[in-house]
From TrEMBL:
The active site is at D239 (proton acceptor). Requires a divalent cation, most likely magnesium in vivo, as an electrophilic catalyst to aid phosphoryl group transfer. It is the chelate of the metal and the nucleotide that is the actual substrate. This is Ribokinase. Substrate binds at N10, A11, D12, G38, K39, G40, A41, N42, E136, D239. Belongs to the carbohydrate kinase PfkB family. Ribokinase subfamily. GO terms for cellular component: cytoplasm. ATP binds at N179, T205, F206, G207, A208, R209, G210, G238, D239. Its cofactor is Mg(2+). K(+) binds at D233, T235, M269, R272, G274. The keyword Translocase does not apply. It comes from Pseudooceanicola algae.
Length: 288
């Protein structure tokens, strides 16, 4: 089985700051690092390190070939990661002393993905494979409809959140992953509580308080407490959770077991500084 991920690839530019700047304030950063990031790349690396085969669908610009090389180094399939003219996606991340962050995104090549790229990538998929996408690329509706037509199980991580973008693909989804703020925004926009959404499985994350799984057909709802850790950097924790969750499902685990695995991976992730480059391996997660 395989996971096909239509996802962003960004150069993460991380600046450590003593506190988040107020309007008009100039701060001196206390540290800097550059690494592989983007919600899509993070999820691809997480699912790969969890033991699944991942094919990443996306694009990098002329300045992003090092990102493609790093994904290859990490074992992610990049045969459908196009090289196009223009800038690669970038994320400027401010990280404070408490491990909280503020992020500014330049979409760049992530918004240049077209239907032809998606069609070519999914031609290699088989019924029963998993497809996943976020909200940092173009081509989302085409991807959702093509994946469902091919018999893939379709998951959506609804971030960065836009209610209209989620509504456009909602009828095709099998799994929807949101944080609690996104869940509240979607309910306000659609007038539907999470348990009333036309999606078989809904997972809502609550950060350090854990997460909730809702199986809408049966009405079952189960809460999961998160492992207790001291956070260093919360960037990429949600992506790590989703990547590991999908890998667990891909490998035949129950939803409860896959969630437990994903929570342990995310808990370990927040104790590390960085994004895709420091996502934990499966053998490390087993020890949490």
């Amino acid at each position: 089985m395989a996971i096909f991920n239509l996802g962003s690839v960004n150069a993460d530019l991380v600046y450590r700051v003593p506190h988040m700047p107020a309007p008009g304030e100039t701060l001196a950063a206390t540290g800097f690092q550059r690494g592989l990031g983007g919600k899509g790349a993070n999820m691809s690396v997480a699912a790969t390190r969890a033991g699944s085969h991942v094919e990443h669908i996306g694009a990098v610009g002329e300045d992003g070939l090092w990102l493609k090389a790093r994904l290859t180094e990490y074992g992610v399939g990049v045969g459908h990661l196009a090289e196009i003219a223009g800038p690669t996606g970038q994320a400027m991340i401010l990280l404070d002393a408490a491990g909280e962050n503020e992020i500014v995104i330049l979409p760049g090549s992530n918004r240049e993905i077209d239907r032809a790229m998606i069609t070519a990538a999914l031609a290699g998929a088989s019924s029963g494979d998993i497809a996943v996408f976020q909200n940092e690329t173009s081509g989302q509706v085409d991807f959702a409809r093509s994946a469902k037509a091919a018999g893939l199980r379709l998951a959506h991580a609804a971030a960065p959140f836009e209610a209209a973008a989620v509504a456009a693909v909602l009828p095709d989804l099998d799994l929807l992953v949101m944080n609690e703020v996104e869940a509240a925004q979607l309910e306000a926009a659609l007038g539907l509580a999470p348990e009333a959404l036309p999606v078989a499985d809904v997972v809502i994350t609550f950060g350090a308080r854990g997460c909730r799984w809702i199986a809408t057909a049966s009405g079952r709802s189960e809460d999961f407490a998160a492992p207790k850790v001291v956070p260093v950097d919360t960037t990429g924790a949600g992506d790590t959770f989703t990547g590991y969750l999908l890998a667990g499902i891909d490998q035949g685990h129950s939803m409860s077991a896959a969630i437990g695995l994903a929570q342990r991976a995310a808990a370990l992730m927040v104790t590390r500084l960085g994004t895709a480059d420091v996502i934990p391996r499966r053998d490390e997660v087993s020890d949490v």
